[in-house]
Amino acid sequence: MLIGNGRAAFITDGRYKEQSIKEVTNCERVYAPLSNQLYETLRDTALIGEGAVIGFESAYTTVSAFERLNTFFPAAEFRPAENLIEPMRQVKSDVELQKLRKAVQITESAFEAVLSEIRPGISESLLAAKINYQLRVCGGSKESFDTIVASGVNASMPHARPTDKRLQKNEFVILDFGAIYEGYHADLTRTVYIGIPGETEREHYEAVREAQALAIKAARAGMTAKELDSAARNSLKEKSLDIFFTHSLGH
Asked: Contact 9/45 with Cβ under 8 angstroms?
């Protein structure tokens, strides 16, 4: 996408022509003959003139892409830029909020559907596959990220990958997954215990639940993520459990 001086262009190749006609609005659409000819096509359209100053998303541009830009447009000046688009996306419209809520509803429905599958003997990988299946059955287009199922000793890793380990009685199982609905992502984490938890397991679970509740109560517009994280972290610190809080509070 190239935006500037009252003109905006979306550049892609023929594979995405039909899709872009449906989805890309309010700008010109430019098509390259082949996927490896995007820069040549951009040059031939004269969208970048002599002496142009172009800001590019440096956090997402590879070194090779940057070098090709300089090769095809030697008379232009390319300046690295960050956080031009992100602030525009931070505050959601009512339509966006509806889609986010729908994504969460789908994710919660998928969780309810797999609860009966969480039992001794099933592998983490198979349970993850069942979750992914239910995310689609319930209305999601795909997973927001790679589904996490971590049981027992694996449950201490915030971003554990599902393995062939089979769930066992008397252990925690961490589920972290989400659905995408019309481009908007949900992210849900749930903790399940197989069997009857002991006193220590209950205490630790309740400590986390209390920290979460305090953070929800403290949340307000205008505060920083760090301040909100502290609300939960300080609660765990009072119970000497903060050293195990290796993840940040949320997203």
From this structure: yes
